[in-house]
Amino acid sequence: MAGATAVAHNGGPTALPPVMQAASEARATGAKTRTSRTSIPTQSGKWILGKTIGAGSMGKVKLARKEDSTEQVACKIIPRGSTEDGHQSRADKERADQSKEIRTAREAAIVTLLQHPHICGLRDVVRTNYHWYMLFEYVNGGQMLDYIISHGKLKEKQARKFSRQIVSALDYCHRNSIVHRDLKIENILISKTGDIKIIDFGLSNLFAPRNHLKTFCGSLYFAAPELLQARAYTGPEVDVWSFGIVLYVLVCGKVPFDDQSMPALHAKIKKGLVDYPGWLSNGKSMGIGYVIRIGWG
What we know:
It is built from eight helices and twelve strands. By secondary structure, it is of the alpha+beta class. It has a six-stranded antiparallel β-sheet. Strands 1-2 form a two-stranded antiparallel ribbon.
């Protein structure tokens, strides 16, 4: 794949795009942004903030330990208000701040409703004048992205297990009128028991079959064609497409669409023409292609 670094696995060299490997490195190092607290008081007790275990565009994630206990959670910290930008007008900043606040409140409300074994559970939410603190169960088995980078493609039995768990979680969400909209390898954790947990519902929303969503969001490598084409969509179909891409990565150890040219990459995704490795069986190719076609259609 163009512009990617090769990694070894039991089926030969493979690769993931540099942007995905950079995401793994960013979580390992953590972004150095100032946090106003060292502990979070909640109804269940006080939580002491520890090291940064993840970082993203919205904020960071710190490991937190309950006071006088060994119990741990992952604390997602989101600053209220946008980052200062000298080129941004006051009106634009206010709109950005309002949009961020709505998105964060919606994420907290939606994740509070979700109770599923393969979705990372929310323990508590605290909002202060300057930050949101979301306390999630701590999944200590590592990131799926890190595993793929280190090991390459998964064995068929393991890929089948993970894919079934992802389908179970997505089906649960869709039956409850919730669409994730940012399903990708980076948002899948592996527990110590070897099961997956889907995280980051920051772009999630409620949907209704007779209405259409018009927010075009998500990650490029996993984004459905209708998002790139700025077409309105119901919701579940974009998750199904993303699942097809995730399934391809699990089985093949690389993304199905890649190019050094951004316009060319967009064109490949919009056409939905997947290039399957020669060693992949027809049955697996047809299965992945079927999932992607459902999401595309």
